[in-house]
Write a structure and sequence with these properties.
Radius of gyration: 27 Å
Helix content: over 70%
Length: 274
């Protein structure tokens, strides 16, 4: 009896945990296949979701709000003022009412793109196999979904396929996506834009300084605990660079002293004869 009990105890002590016991018995090829599946399968399974988010966001961003608004007034905004479809040019050419409508539309489509991306990520999952026949359901991280949607929307606004990839400068749309991703950062950057604009009356200068300030604000929020996820910082750097790149002609005019201050308007063009 004692010998039997002692040998049983020895067998109990020598027994490996289930996961290691399974690994000890499993063939090497099977282990390698399981490892590769666990590493690559989630990436492959999330690819259709990420592609769907980016494409939908691009299509939302490519809606040319300024052009559509100007069409309601019988003109093509691309033929007047700075020939840009953004809210500033619409405001100058058609007035405050239509400029504000364009601004809200551009901000709104950016916000909507991020919200749709996060909504899809929360509802689109994939199964990940675990040892011993178990499995779990994984989802795309909301922050990553927001970043994918934000980039797709900004690129859609700046380079809309419907207009030969000649779109706006992305300031209002960037503000919209940032509101969807990190509202506090959006409020702080918008406040910076407002102060610079109030002091200078240059929309372009205010936009450029706000763009440069965005990564700084995001870093401050990350270190203070007001924001989480360094992906937001990397996004803010790319978004800022896009805004700066789209304002190259404005930068040249600012340096030359020929940039128009806000309030300089173009006479409202007459509608085409019917």
């Amino acid at each position: 009896m004692r010998g039997s009990a002692g040998s049983s105890a020895a067998r109990t002590e020598a027994r490996l945990p289930p996961v290691f016991d399974a690994m000890a018995r499993a063939p090497r090829r099977r282990l390698l296949a399981l490892a590769l599946t666990n590493v690559h399968a989630p990436t492959l399974r999330m690819t259709p979701l990420v592609a769907t988010i980016v494409i939908l966001a691009y299509l939302l961003g490519s809606i040319p709000c300024g052009l559509l608004v100007s069409r309601t007034q019988g003109i093509d905004i691309r033929l007047h003022g700075s020939k840009n479809i953004g809210a500033t040019n619409v405001w100058r050419v058609l007035g405050k009412k239509w400029g504000l409508a364009t601004f809200l539309c551009d901000v709104g489509k950016g916000l909507l793109a991020v919200l749709v991306g996060k909504w899809l990520a929360a509802r689109w999952g994939w199964t990940v196999p675990l040892p011993h026949g178990h499995e779990r359901i994984d989802h795309l991280a909301p922050d990553f979904a927001g970043i994918a949607a934000a980039m797709g929307c900004i690129i859609g606004h700046n380079f809309p396929v419907w207009l030969g990839f000649k779109g706006g400068k992305g300031v209002a749309t960037s503000l919209g996506v940032i509101f969807g991703m990190m509202p506090l950062a959006a409020l702080l950057v918008f406040a910076i834009w407002g102060v610079v604009f109030k002091l200078s009356r240059y929309v372009s200068l205010a936009s450029l300084i706000a763009a440069v300030a965005l990564p700084v604000v995001v870093v401050g929020l990350l270190f203070s605990g007001g924001l989480h996820g360094w992906g937001n910082f990397y996004f803010s750097v790319v978004a800022a660079l896009l805004v700066i790149k789209r304002h190259r002609s404005n930068i040249a005019r600012l340096l030359a002293g020929t940039e128009l201050r806000f309030g300089t308007t173009e006479a409202k063009p007459a509608p085409p004869p019917s």
